[in-house]
Structure formats: C-alpha cells, structure tokens
Amino acid sequence: MQRFDRRGFIGAGAGLMTASALPACTQIATTPAQTEGPFYPLGLPLDRDNDLVQVEGRRDSAAGQVLNLGGQVLGTDGKPAAGLRIEIWQCDANGVYHHPGDRRGPADPNFQGFGHTIADGQGGYRFRTIVPVVYPGRTPHIHFKILGADVDPLTTQMYVAGNPENEQDGLYRQLGQASALVTVALEPDGVSGAMRGVFNITLG
Ligand SMILES: [Fe+2]
After folding, report:
1. Which range, of 6-20, 24-38, 80-94, 163-177, averages the lowest pLDDT?
2. pLDDT value of residue 47
3. For 15-62, how does the pLDDT look when each residue is reduced to its tens digit (9 = 90+)?
4. Would you say residue 61 lies in a domain?
5. Structural element, H or E, at residue 6
6. Ligand 1 centroid distance, CA of 189 (Å)
7. CB 9, CB 128: distance < 8 Å
8. Ligand 1 centre and the CA of 100: distance in Å?
9. For position 77, what pLDDT does the model report?
10. How close is the Cα of 53 to the center of ligand 1, in Å?
C-alpha cells in the first residue's frame, strides 16, 4: 500500500488551475452557500488533518476511491485569501457519517470523516479524501466550511460532475445555474487509481 507523503502532497498543487491564472478582467462569481446539514461533528476528531484517508494510529486506509482534492480560495476582493481555515466533512464509503445522529452504520473506522487545513499564501488548499458516494436521499457531495477572522464564514457543498443523482437532488436543483460553481469534474490522478479534482472557492 502506498504511503501518503504529507510534504509531497502539500506541494503537489503546481498542476492545479488557479483563479490567479485568469485574466485580471475576468469576473469571478461568488460561491453559493448551502445548508450545513445535520452531520457537522459534535466534537472534532483527534485526528483532523487534511488526510481523511489515513487515521492516525490505524494500519489500514479508508475504504473507497481516493480523491486528491485541491483549489484556491479567493477573498471578496478577488485576490487569494491566505490563512483561512477550510473544513470538510462527508460520509464514508458505506454512506455513513461519523456522527451519533447517523444510525445507518457500521461506519468505516479507517475514514476520518472530517478534516481541516489552512490556506497557504496563495489561498491554496489540498485534501486527500475519498470520492463521495450516494447516501439515502442525497447525491454524492462533500461539505465545506471556510472560516477566518476577517471574512463572513461560508458553508457550502461540493458536487461531482456527471453524477446522474445530481438532477434528482433537491439541494442541488435549488442552486439552478449556480450549481456549476460547486460542481467539480474529476479525472484519474496518474496510475494510482485515485481521482483528482479542483474546487476553487470565491467568498462573497
Ligand atoms: Fe451531507
């Protein structure tokens, strides 16, 4: 099993398309807010880093297809927002949230369920997680929360392009055309069997 190299992972953003590469005149639409849902952790897990696939102290990795997810956070002025806290949470490969309110178990003990990171000087962030899966009543999604001293917090959800369940999902449909701003195309990440995706976030 390939072991996760934290330094290599954090530094692997060179190939990502970043919003700062866009022409200066390009208008960037604000990322729409979405409900937090019922499964934000009641207490944050001891291991809450940006690698949700490997829980500290456990030998095995999470079930599911690895997703290397990254992007850039832009502030209200359209410039990279450095130093913001980015949190994600999602259900595991069994469709179960690591939350006492989710009784659909069993949960995958090797999935971290929640992770966080701090955006770098260019607003860049990375997570290693799993490709989200369907659970009853919802299309696959990853919950995001962006927090910082000088910004209004943003809570939203990220979706995967091409999932047929998207168009059946009430929260997704509610977004209308703005759904494009939270829908991410995934592609194979090399030959590892993992996927990769870029989710840029613009704060309003
Ligand atoms: Fe959810």
Report:
1. 6-20
2. 85
3. 444 444 445 445 568 999 999 999 998 888 788 899 999 999 999 999
4. yes
5. helix 6-10
6. 25
7. yes
8. 14
9. 81
10. 18
Q: How far is the CA of 150 from the centre of ligand 1 (A)?
A: 27
Type and span of the H or E element at 124: strand 124-130
Q: Could you give the 3-state DSSP secondary structure of residue 173?
A: helix
How far apart are the CA of 84 and the centre of ligand 1, in A? 22
Residue 26's pLDDT is 53
Looking at the structure of the chain, the number of domains it has is 1
Q: How far is the CA of 39 from the centre of ligand 1 (A)?
A: 7
Residue 113: domain span: 6-13+30-202
pTM score of the predicted model = 0.87
CATH number reported for the structural domain that contains residue 186 in this entry: 2.60.130.10
**20 and 122 Cβ atoms separated by less than 8 Å:** yes
86 alpha carbon – ligand 1 mean position (Å)? 16
Q: What is the whole-number distance in angstroms between the Cα of residue 85 and the centre of ligand 1?
A: 20
DSSP characters for 30-94? PPPP----TTS-SS--S--SSB-SS-TT-SSPPSS-EEEEEEEEE-TTSSB-TT-EEEEE---TT
* Gap from CA of 135 to ligand 1 centroid (Å): 8
How much is the pLDDT for 42?
A: 87
134 part of a folded domain: yes
**Any domain includes 1:** no
What average pLDDT does the structure give for the chain?
A: 88
* Ligand 1 centre distance from Cα of residue 23 (Å): 35
In a domain, 108, yes or no: yes
